């Protein structure tokens, strides 16, 4: 976290120096475009930091553990973000809860079990493979299998319809039509 912030500050300082040097040499329109591009790159490159400094534990080892646990827990509002990356109020509350439990002496697994007991398997970014989550894990493979079976059946029916032979009466009528077409 601290490294990311320092990197962002360094990038901002370098961009400011570069902009100052180029300002004297470039036309105003080019300078404005370059400034906009630089700002866009800075905002895109800066990591989103949802954890507030007031939430952080004073012990770096405990804070690292809290971040590790927080990266395994899903934000229930954002759905595809960990609670460490989310800025939702519920994620904030869960981050504080994780840090309180770790500061109280709980192990990482105890903290995860505590939160999982309250919110279920859905709070885990990687839920365990169990009977209740089998469809979650096997669902994509099942959908692919069913889609493959449907495609095979479709093409078999289509091929069978194309291969259907003509009855003797239909063959005679077709031959008559073809002879008239060739003669006339």
Describe the structure.
This protein is mostly helical. The protein has 3 domains: 2-45; 53-123, Helicase, Ruva Protein, domain 3 (Orthogonal Bundle), CATH 1.10.8.640; 133-183, no CATH class. 68% of the residues lie in helices and 0% in strands. Helix 3 (60-72) runs parallel beside helix 5 (108-119) and helix 4 crosses helix 5.
Q: Can you summarize the main beta sheet?
A: none
Q: How many DSSP E strands?
A: 0
Overall 3D form: flat
Q: What is the terminal-to-terminal distance?
A: 87 Å
The percent of residues in helical segments reads 55-70%
Q: Low-confidence parts lasting 5 or more residues at pLDDT below 50?
A: none
Q: Which fold name is given in CATH as the topology of the largest domain? A: Helicase, Ruva Protein, domain 3
Mean pLDDT: 80
Number of domains: 3
Look at the structure and name the CATH superfamily of the largest domain.
Cytochrome C biogenesis protein
| Count of alpha and pi helical runs | 7
How large a portion of the residues is in β-strands, by DSSP E?
Answer: under 5%
Please outline the helices and strands.
Elements: H1 2-23, H2 28-45, H3 60-72, H4 89-103, H5 108-119, H6 134-162, H7 168-183
Helix pairs in contact: 1-2, 3-4, 3-5, 4-5
């Amino acid at each position: 976290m601290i490294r990311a912030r320092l990197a962002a500050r360094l990038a901002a300082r370098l961009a400011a120096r570069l902009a100052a040097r180029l300002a004297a040499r470039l036309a105003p329109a080019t300078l404005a475009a370059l400034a906009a591009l630089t700002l866009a790159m800075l905002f895109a490159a800066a990591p989103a930091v949802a954890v507030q400094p007031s939430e952080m534990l004073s012990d770096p080892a405990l804070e690292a553990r809290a971040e590790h646990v927080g990266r395994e827990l899903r934000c229930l509002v954002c759905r595809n973000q960990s609670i460490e990356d989310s800025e939702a109020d519920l994620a904030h509350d869960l981050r504080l809860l994780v840090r309180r439990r770790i500061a109280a002496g709980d192990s990482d697994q105890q903290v995860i079990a505590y939160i999982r007991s309250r919110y279920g398997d859905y709070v885990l970014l990687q839920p365990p493979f169990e009977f209740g989550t089998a469809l979650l894990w096997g669902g994509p493979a099942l959908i692919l299998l069913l889609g493959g079976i449907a495609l095979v059946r479709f093409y078999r029916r289509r091929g069978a319809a194309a291969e259907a032979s003509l009855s003797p009466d239909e063959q005679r009528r077709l031959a008559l039509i073809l002879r008239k077409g060739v003669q006339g």
